[in-house]
Design brief:
about 80 residues, alpha+beta, two-stranded antiparallel ribbon, about 55% helix
């Protein structure tokens, strides 16, 4: 039963993050040309977008799991 609360809390945290931060961008560096001492590098952006519906569903599922654990834990 302890696993239920841990999964629920993880889902709640991930759901809040997914709703609060809808997307993030990171950059990778790629070498375009390399001829002796002449080198050309470029930075390419990569954007990851979180669907707010999925974040809301994760948040709701986490709340349900935590409430379910509290219900089964109480005498």
């Amino acid at each position: 039963m302890r696993l239920l609360i841990v999964i629920g809390l993880i889902l709640i945290v991930l759901g809040i993050v997914a709703v609060a931060v809808p997307s993030f961008t990171f950059f990778t560096t790629e070498r375009v040309a390399d001829a002796g001492f002449f080198k050309i590098d470029i930075s390419r952006p990569h954007t990851i977008v979180f669907n707010p519906i999925v974040g809301g569903l994760a948040l709701a599922a986490g709340i349900v799991l935590v409430l379910l654990w509290r219900r089964t834990a109480s005498p």
